[in-house]
């Protein structure tokens, strides 16, 4: 199963869903896409409960360097939604990246979303970094953004995915 990425620039959120055996090429493809889209400061939710990978410590360090991409921009919060029986990659990545910004592991997508939204909506710590997300209308979030973009990554191939508007139930 490929990696699916959805980016909401309006709400400064990236959602990544991975299922099945994820190859190093797919993880590198995901990292390159995030660097190209310039979303380092965005909140990222990685739903990996159904994914497995065999990544070495050296590959995790290389992934971190790729994601940094020479940017001096502060990294946004990262929330991993995990299966407690498969935690090797999320724990290793969290240990490597924790000094750069907030990163936590969750067993619930709802809790991960809530945590990232709290961080995005927190008051700015200085006058030079206005918090745009805090100004959004009540009830607005990354999944209501009509201009969000999706991409599917399988191996070294990438394909844009059309996003349909969500309808209220």
Describe this structure in words.
- The chain contains four helices and seven strands.
- By secondary structure, it is an alpha/beta fold.
- It has one domain: Transcription Regulator spoIIAA (2-Layer Sandwich).
- Helix 1 runs parallel beside helix 2 and helix 2 packs across helix 3.
- The radius of gyration is 15 Å and the shape is globular.
Strand and helix map with partners:
Layout: E1 3-8, E2 13-21, H1 24-37, E3 43-52, H2 57-68, E4 78-81, H3 88-97, E5 103-106, H4 109-120, E6 149-154, E7 157-161
Parallel strand pairs: 2-3, 3-4, 4-5
Antiparallel strand pairs: 1-2, 1-6, 6-7
Helix pairs in contact: 1-2, 2-3
Tally of individual helices? 4
Task: Report the count of strand segments.
Answer: 7
Number of domains: 1
- The average pLDDT score comes to 79
Indicate the CATH class: Alpha Beta
Largest sheet: 7 strands, mixed
Overall SS class: alpha/beta
Tell me the overall shape.
globular
* CATH-derived architecture: 2-Layer Sandwich
Provide the helix percentage. 25-40%
Strand order of the largest sheet: 5-4-3-2-1-6-7
Q: Please mark out the parts with pLDDT under 50 across 5 or more consecutive residues, or reply none.
A: 127-137
In CATH, the topology is named: Transcription Regulator spoIIAA
Rg from C-alpha positions?
Answer: 15 Å
Q: What is the strand content? A: 25-35%
What is the terminal separation in angstroms?
29 Å
Oligomer: single chain
SSE order, one letter for each helix or strand = EEHEHEHEHEE
